[in-house]
Amino acid sequence: MTVAIAADLGRIVGAANVETRPAALVPYRTDATFGFAGTPAAVVRPGSTDEVSQTLAWASRHSVPVVPRGAGTGLAAGAVPIRGGIVLALTRMNRIVSIDPVDLTAVAQPGVTTQELARAAAGHGLHYPPDPGSRHVSTLGGNVATNAGGLHGLKYGNTAGYVLGVEAVLAGGDVIRAGGRLLKDVAGYDLVRLLTGSEGTLAVLTELTLALRPAPAESLTGLAYFADLETAGAAVGGVIAAGFLPATLEFLDAGCIRSVEAHARLGLDPTAGAMLLFGDDGGAAETRRTVSAMADVMRAHGAASVQVAGAAAESEALLAARRCALPALSRLGGATMLEDVGVPRSRLPELVRRIDAIAERHGVTMATFGHAGDGNAHPVGCFDPADARQRARVAAAFDDVFAAAIELGGTITGEHGVGAAKLPYLQAQLGPAQTALLTRIKRAFDPAGILNPGKLGS
Ligand SMILES: Cc1cc2nc3c(=O)[nH]c(=O)nc-3n(C[C@H](O)[C@H](O)[C@H](O)COP(=O)(O)OP(=O)(O)OC[C@H]3O[C@@H](n4cnc5c(N)ncnc54)[C@H](O)[C@@H]3O)c2cc1C
Fold this sequence. Notes:
This protein is α+β, with helices and mostly antiparallel strands. The chain folds into four domains: 2-89, Uridine Diphospho-n-acetylenolpyruvylglucosamine Reductase, domain 2 (2-Layer Sandwich), CATH 3.30.43; 96-214, Uridine Diphospho-n-acetylenolpyruvylglucosamine Reductase, domain 3, CATH 3.30.465; 218-323, Alpha-Beta Plaits; 327-407, Alpha-Beta Plaits (2-Layer Sandwich). Helices cover 38% and strands 21% of the residues. It has helices at 2-13, 22-25, 49-62, 114-122, 140-146, 153-156, 191-195, 229-241, 254-264, 284-300, 312-323, 325-333, 348-362, 388-407, 423-445, and strands spanning 18-19, 42-44, 66-69, 86-89, 96-100, 105-108, 126-127, 163-169, 175-179, 204-211, 213-214, 218-226, 248-253, 274-282, 305-308, 335-338, 341-342, 365-371, 376-383. Strands 12, 13, 14, 15, 16, 17, 18 and 19 form an eight-stranded antiparallel beta sheet that branches. Strands 5-6-10-8-9 form a five-stranded antiparallel beta sheet. Strand 5 and strand 6 form a beta hairpin. Helix 13 runs antiparallel to helix 14 (388-407). The two termini are 24 Å apart. 52% of the residues are buried. The model has no long low-confidence stretch (mean pLDDT 95). It binds flavin-adenine dinucleotide.
């Protein structure tokens, strides 16, 4: 099969764009998720929609699995070839086709990075809001396929809010276009929305039409310390109840604050029980007023101390505390398992309290940070990867964390997706009837089951 892949697909994408040497396949065995690996037969790098189409038609004829892949930064093992086959790396398709300052749209190929599009939009005085922590490397195709979130989800939402249209190649090689540069379009089922977050299991995305916004003139951030997460949670409620919709509303628990400070020496208060980063963007004077008013709400709700950045560079320095939470925690045990549960915003303190109790019960080190405004928490289990028992205890603790999130009316994944990592937990959240419907949708798109098998819809 490897010989056939190299010969047949080499004719489609060019021999230099098919890789079958075992050493060269190693980076494509995993993504950024701990503990998941597969063995691809080949990596194929198409350069055009037509090459994707021909590759999928070939794979359908030969019943070979195809795993679409962007930058491989996924945290749910979505791009891991757990059933082997071809990894379809879309990073050669990395052209920004157009930016339209009147329609407020960008058209881009899937291999463009999130940051490249944001920078190109900024060059036109425009703003592409989705801002995952991986934005300097993650691709637009991966962002749309996972419906990625980021640091500004409360005000700006996840990636789905910006996907106006897609060009996609179906499993048999047919090319469809759904949506486009239209703000209103209700012709047929909403396939744009269905393909967004479909994690490479329904089609391969080959071109994206994305909405842009006018760039805000100012963006400011503040930081507030609290004695505990309950008090911080009350302050979050206070900010929303006061009529604000912050562009930033992030939290770190005590364990994260201590780790970040030990790792990055940012001058954080390591004795604080919880920390909120809050902020807004918009017109300069109005943003200053809003962020200052939010700081007053934080004080009124028991913040031990509050500071507000005076300028954009200072804001970025404050946000660094949140951005380096994961690297800081990874130093605690050698390896980390990062999770992504979500609950209604009002129940976030209860969720984090339960996570702490679960960690204690299982005797594992866990700390939590996340998007307080979105109710989306990232508990991180830290452990020695050489210690199988410790690793098993962390996994068992996460089983309980997922159950707790579902019990609180929440989700097993707010933004990272299901991939191979969360599939065993999906039915507990969706129930059997909805899980079976997902499988039927998958079969309608991909009857032979070649697209990213062992993931959503399997
Ligand atoms: C340090 C770090 C910080 C992160 N921060 C965030 C964050 O703040 N918010 C967040 O949501 N995520 C975050 N992530 C997770 C990850 O970056 C996102 O899920 C991102 O969207 C994945 O993009 P990618 O290009 O790496 O996709 P990959 O990992 O390559 O693929 C992800 C999924 O998309 C599918 N896919 C990729 N391209 C296509 C395509 N063209 N057509 C169809 N399917 C495709 C794959 O099959 C796979 O299922 C972070 C990860 C890291 C390592």
